Amino acid sequence: GNGNGNGRASFDVDDVDDDRRQFTVTSLQAHEGLWEKITSLIVPEKDADEFLYSPSAWFVSYINWTFQWGFTWVFLSFLAIFMLLTFAFGGFLKLAGDQYPGCIVVSGEQYGYNDSTRLADAFALSWTTFTTVGYGMIYTSTGTDYGDQGHCSLIVFLCTTESFVGLLYAGMCAAILFGKVGRVQSHAQVKFSHALCVKLGTPAEDGDNSATTLGMGGTGTGLGAQLVLETPTSQAPSAFLSDTPGAESQMSMMSPMSTMVDRRPKISCPVLTFQVINKLANTPGGEIMDANMRAVASNRGATGRSGANSSSASDDAVSSFIKVQLAEFEHPYFNRVWQGRHVLDGNSPLLTPAAKEAVRRNGGYWPAEWNNPKDVREAMRLNSLIVILTGISNVSAATVHGYKKFQYGDLLVGYEFAPVLYKSEHKNRLKVDFTLTNDVVEQAGGVADVIAESEQGSERGKKRGGGTRSSEQMAMTAAESERTAATAAAQRPGVVYSKSVRLDVRQ
């Protein structure tokens, strides 16, 4: 195997000379008689020790389709199947009526009295029988209408079968609609933000930034060599500490009796944030009780920018899901806004092993030289983040759920979500401005990702930080904005120019 830069070996299938044989295991019946062999041609074989229901694949596909598409398309599919069945039975009834016209009565006359309406009459008998409407304009003859009822056995059998199929079809349609309504009620009426924001670290409040003496195996009396750590030169995580086990020991090559004086500023770890808003926030009784939020990350070998450091296709073929611990994962009364937060510290699964080791060796603080969008992205190991919300709706009293899958391209470093709450003028209560759900503001005092901007054009009257924009900036075309952002990214070290997200500037 070849090293892939993150401490794991990767293998390419084409490079491995594997001469092992591969087999398919099939369960065999102990005693398979002639009848079992015949029925196995019609009904798929079932394992007696495997208690699984195996309905028709076509039927299962249609049921799944009805739950995935909207009500309009489901209604149209019901209508199409209804027309297909009624036309099919109408065709059989026409053939039988042509053979025995006395067995069908059309407005008091025998079937075929008007030769030009034979097909229409047969179809009328079909759909009235299928729906059990029974207008009385057309029906199967009785002994009074036609004496030789033995000839009418086929028509009676067709009408009886069609009425039974119609009842089953009506019940199936009702069951599907009932399930779709239940599915609507089981979905949480929430709205997730489009972006994942990463707030850069800020100077820690629980300690000063003065020089601190850290004993490295010494007695603290000043014996041994003394190493003074000034603010180091800016190095990317990939250059400062690579994702290999050997590289993790680069920071530990000190004398056991040495004393280290740390004069580096203490920076809190960055915080990854996403936002969830209750769509019924402005509706009384729209709360979600006992809400829980969980998150799992899909790494799939991705390290750094959009998996750019993934070494081979074999890494991409293996996806690993890791639980991500949220700071606030429970909410007993979710009625307005909920921001999920995850701290990118030494225990975060979203960081590379090298970055986690560096945070631990830094006393749990974020390295100051990494506190910029470029190095934060380099330190992260993320392909996608799946957030799942569950709870009990106060509207339907049913268990509800919802989920959102964030991709790496949704990541914004150096931003935070804009406030969405405002106070109602008529009622003394807070309300949510849903138009601000996806609004973000640049982090105060920090360096943010440079992203192509475009003017939204509508005035909200709610300016959310970031300073005012000049008229020249507002008048820039999309191409000019993109070129300007790219130039700014090149001139500002440690800043990432992203084309995955577009920001609309609010006036």
TrEMBL record:
Cellular localisation: Membrane
Q: How does it sit in the membrane?
A: Multi-pass membrane protein
Q: Locate the compositionally biased regions of type Low complexity.
A: 469-490
**Source organism's superkingdom?**
Eukaryota
GO biological process per UniProt: potassium ion import across plasma membrane; regulation of monoatomic ion transmembrane transport
One Gene Ontology molecular-function label = inward rectifier potassium channel activity
Gene3D superfamilies given for it? 1.10.287.70, G protein-activated inward rectifier potassium channel 1
> Mind telling me which residue stretches traverse the membrane in this protein?
71-93, 122-142, 154-178
Q: Any idea which UniProt keywords this protein has?
A: Ion channel, Ion transport, Membrane, Potassium, Potassium transport, Transmembrane, Transmembrane helix, Transport, Voltage-gated channel
Region span, Disordered: 453-492
Which InterPro entries does the record match to this protein? Ig_E-set (IPR014756), K_chnl_inward-rec_Kir (IPR016449), K_chnl_inward-rec_Kir_cyto (IPR013518)
Per the record, its GO cellular-component terms are: monoatomic ion channel complex; plasma membrane
Q: Which family does this protein fall into?
A: Belongs to the inward rectifier-type potassium channel (TC 1.A.2.1) family.
Q: What is this protein called?
A: Potassium channel domain-containing protein
